[in-house]
Every structure is written in C-alpha cells, then in structure tokens.
C-alpha cells in the first residue's frame, strides 16, 4: 500500500513538472521593477519594429574589459538591445571587441575610424600609473541595403565622464529607435524652406538641414512667384506639410501674407524664426566695437497679432546668459577671455511639454520678448529667459566696451520673458472681413486644427561658419560649450508634424546612481575593511560562539 502511494506521489510530481514546463515554455513574461521603467520599451519603439519584413542586424562595438563607467554603459546597452530583440524576432545582434585581437587591432581601428566611428580614449591614473584604453562606443544598424551608425555615448567637452555616461544611458532607447526609424520608415512628410525674403543662406542653416534631412523631404520654396501667379503659388505651397522661415529680413507683401495665411487655413504647419530688432554680433566687429540696434518691420505684426502673439521691438537682456570671448589687455599681454554677455540669454525650457522636456539650455542672440494675446488659440510657452531679465528699447547703441562693466543687478527685475511660443488650434484668417489683395479660390476664414511655433530670434537656427565650412549648431567654438538649439528645433519639427513618438522616447528620464570617486579614494581603507575584513571577523566570531555553545551543551 505504501509502495503504491509512493509511486503515485512520484507520478504526480513528474506530471506536475511536465505541466509547469509546458505552460512556462508557451507563456513568457518579463517584469520591469525599476522605479523609472528603464527596461520597458515605449509604444513608439515597439511600433517602429513591429512590421519588420527583413532581418535588422545590430553590430555593437562596445565590448571588452572597460573602466566601471563604461561597464555600466555596456550593461545598459545589452539590456536595451535585449528588449528590442524580445519585441521582434527579426532583430539580431553581434557584440564585437575591435581591439581584442592584437593582429587585427590596428586594421579594425582604422576601418571604424574611417567609417566615422571616432574612438574614445580613456585615460586612467587612479592607481598612480597612467593607462589608456581605446573604446568604441558605437553600433552599426543594417536593414535591407542600408547601414547607419548609432552613437552610444553622448560626448561633451564641458561634462565629466560620469555625467556623459548618465546622459548616454538616458538616451539609449532614443539612439536605437532613432536609427531604426531612419532605416525602416520611408520619408513621407515634406518641408518647405522659405526663400525670397532675405532668409538665411543655406550655409548658415546647413547643420539644421543635415539634422532634419534623414526624417523628411526638404525643398526650397520661393515666394517671388506670388507677384505674377499668387493662386498657383498657394496651390504649390499647400503641397508641403510644414514651412520654415529662417530669419527673414525683407518685408512681406500683402499677396505673400495672404498666401501664407491661406496655407495655415488649409492646415499647414509653420515654424517662424523672426526678429523685430536688427542687431548681430558681426555688427560690433569694427574699430569702435559698437553697433546700433534698429527696429525691423517685416509687415507681419497684424499677421501674428491675429493668431495670438506679438513680438515686441525691444531686446531682452538677461543676467543668466552665455559668455562672449573678448581680447582683454593690451599688446602682447592681451588674452582671450569669456565675458558674460547679457544679450545672449540662456533660455530655460518648459519641463511639462514634450518639445522641451529634458532639454539643455537654448542660446539666443539679441532676442525680443513675445506677448501672448487672448483668443481661441491654445498657447504653450516653450522657452523663457531667466527671472533676472530686463528690456532695452531700439534704437540704441550697443558697445563691447561696456561688457566688462558690472551690471546693475537691481535693474534686471522684469521676470521671465517669452522667447518661443507654440500655438495650436483653429486659427482665424488675418484677412477675414477684409478686402483681399488677390482673388483666392476657396478662401477660408477659419482653419482646420493646425500648429505654429514662433521664435523671436532668427540666430537660434544659425550655425557658425569657419573657413566656409558650417559648424555644429548649438556648439560654441570659442567657449567650448554646447547648447540645446538643434535638439529644440528638431523636437519642434517632430511635434509640428505629429511625430511625437520620438520626442517622447527622447524625453524619457532615467536616474543613474554613481559612486562618488573622491569619497572612495579618501576612504579607501575604510571601505576595504567593511567589505573584506569585517565579514571575515563576523564569520570568525560566529564560529567561535557556535563552537563554544556546542561544547558547553555536550559537556553538560
């Protein structure tokens, strides 16, 4: 009887194990218990790879024995790649250490460098001996007949390595999703770069165009034809999903304004980078080091007023501003030094909007304040100057000689000034109940739901040009500081064109905890004692007490 029960018991256990294994093999579930859900892919990321019809190959070169900071990045990369692989069976990954084999090391380094994968040279002197490691924080993604590089490290010359790693970990999902988007999604949306009204030459917006080009179809659009064929110009303009006006300097005619107005009424999106005061740093590069700011009338006041904003003809001066490099001293003693330049506000971003969430400071030059007016349009303030701001009217003389003078901080008390505003809703036509400058086919007095971003400084989109070569937008060559201009503009374009998925991935927050290297160094002996000696002491003490009690028990 007992034997039968034992056999039955064993059979039940075996059958139970088979059932559990069968269920577990067909039902698989992962749980992300991290507070910030860092290992949970966003819906936008999953959507990108949901319809892959060919293998997507990822070659990760962040492989090898690294310092602790890079080991963290290495681990996070593997975690996020694993999540992408679990979401799609068409994703395959290769982890490659390009410097592992001494015989092919130099050849690998040259090939990757020539492909645009700049290595990171990590110098370590924490042990008293200087060592250097060559690290390639990059990956290749290949889909069908296309291959592109994915940066895994967000480099910055103004930040320490730990901060760079932290920012990189936060951006990992976006880095891969952005690359996949360029490979998988065909460019469908069309952007018109307005020309004909003194806008910036392509050389000065080259880095912005280079940034946007992988996502959208770009084309120049000249409004000159409005003079001879206004209706045809309007029909052609409505072909585009978004128009960008980059620092126009020539006034718009009524015919041009009507074309732009009806483009908006038909649901067209627009990004305006315009100014009401004429002043540039180049105007100060003369023997006197002075320039005069004057008002600029582009005949757009009624245009923006009707939509709900007004760009005032004054300049914002801000105590929290970017520096300007000036030569201080005389003759051979002169040295280039960064001096605070109140005409270059460093705008704080709105942390509650997807366009500006987690955005670096955005640099302006000679910006004007924007007033928002009451109407039916929803207005979101995207960028503002600091509370320590003041306004300066035009015309006025601006001199570099005054830069070294200490500002009167009490006069900077006007509070934050709006520098970039998002408008959303159903716009009313500027020409509603007005005589039209030309007859419009199917004139609309009310728009369908649309969007518009108005920025009060055209230089925000302008990249520096050195030796006739455009430089990176948002990077100041003289001071070595990076600003968020490019990311802000890309986010704005994505949002206006309803590509909010990538914005949401980019703004994902992940908190990375690092050990304090200085405290570790200062308290090295203490931590060694706690982690090595103390456990041994406790173990020995436990053994001594255990043996003592055991002997006492059996001796009795």
TrEMBL record:
In what residue span(s) does the ABC-type uncharacterised transport system domain sit?
189-492
Classification via Pfam families:
ABC_transp_aux (PF09822), DUF7088 (PF23357)
> Where in the numbering of this chain does the DUF7088 domain appear?
35-141
Q: Which UniProt keywords apply?
A: Membrane, Transmembrane, Transmembrane helix
Transmembrane annotation, as ranges = 7-28, 529-549
Could you tell me what this protein is called?
A: Protein involved in gliding motility GldG
Which species is this record about? Winogradskyella pacifica
């Amino acid at each position: 009887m007992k034997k039968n029960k034992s056999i039955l018991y064993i059979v039940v256990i075996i059958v139970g194990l088979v059932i559990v294994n069968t269920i577990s093999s067909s039902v698989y579930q992962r749980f992300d218990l991290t507070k910030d859900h860092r290992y949970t892919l966003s819906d936008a990321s999953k959507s990108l790879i949901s319809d892959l019809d060919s293998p997507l190959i990822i070659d990760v070169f962040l492989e090898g024995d690294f310092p602790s900071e890079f080991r963290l990045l290495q681990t996070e990369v593997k975690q996020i790649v694993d999540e992408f692989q679990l979401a799609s069976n068409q994703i395959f990954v290769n982890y490659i250490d390009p410097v592992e084999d001494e015989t092919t090391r130099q050849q690998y380094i040259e090939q990757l460098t020539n492909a645009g994968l700049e290595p990171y040279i990590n110098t370590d002197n924490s042990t008293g001996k200087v060592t250097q490691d060559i690290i390639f924080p990059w990956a290749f993604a290949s889909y069908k007949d296309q291959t592109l590089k994915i940066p895994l490290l967000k480099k910055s010359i103004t930040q320490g390595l730990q901060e760079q790693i932290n920012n990189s970990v936060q951006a990992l999902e976006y880095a891969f999703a952005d690359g996949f988007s360029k490979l998988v999604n065909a460019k469908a949306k069309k952007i018109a770069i307005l020309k004909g009204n003194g806008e910036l030459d392509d050389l000065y917006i080259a880095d912005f165009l280079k940034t946007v080009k992988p996502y959208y179809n770009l084309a120049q659009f000249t409004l000159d034809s409005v003079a001879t064929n206004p209706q045809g110009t309007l029909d052609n303009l409505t072909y585009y999903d978004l128009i960008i006006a980059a620092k126009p300097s020539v006034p718009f005619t009524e015919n041009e304004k009507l074309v732009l107005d009806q483009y908006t009424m038909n649901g067209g999106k627009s990004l305006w980078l315009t100014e009401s005061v004429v002043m540039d740093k180049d105007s100060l590069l003369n023997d006197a080091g002075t320039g005069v700011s004057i008002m600029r009338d582009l005949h757009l006041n009624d245009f923006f007023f009707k939509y709900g904003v007004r760009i005032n003809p004054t300049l914002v001066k801000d105590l929290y501003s970017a520096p300007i490099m000036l030569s201080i001293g005389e003759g051979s003693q002169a040295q280039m030094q960064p001096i605070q330049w109140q005409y270059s506000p460093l705008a704080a971003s709105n942390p509650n909007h997807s366009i500006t969430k987690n955005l670096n400071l955005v640099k302006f030059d000679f910006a004007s304040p924007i007033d928002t007016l009451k109407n039916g349009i929803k207005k979101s303030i995207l960028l503002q100057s600091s509370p320590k701001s003041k306004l300066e009217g035009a015309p006025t003389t601006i001199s570099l000689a005054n830069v070294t003078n200490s500002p009167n901080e009490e006069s900077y008390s006007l509070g934050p000034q709006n520098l970039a505003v998002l408008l959303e809703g159903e716009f009313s036509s500027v020409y509603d109940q007005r005589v039209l400058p030309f007859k419009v086919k199917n004139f609309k007095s009310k728009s369908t739901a649309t969007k518009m971003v108005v920025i009060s400084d055209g230089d925000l989109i302008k990249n520096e040009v050195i030796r006739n070569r455009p430089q990176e937008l948002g990077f100041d060559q003289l001071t070595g500081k990076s600003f968020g201009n490019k990311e802000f503009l890309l986010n704005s374009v994505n949002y206006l064109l309803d590509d909010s998925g990538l914005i949401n991935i980019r703004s994902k927050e992940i908190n990375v905890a690092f050990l304090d290297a200085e405290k570790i160094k200062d308290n090295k002996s203490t931590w060694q004692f706690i982690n090595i000696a103390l456990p041994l002491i406790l173990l020995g003490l436990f053994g001594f007490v255990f043996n003592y009690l055991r002997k006492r028990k059996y001796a009795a």
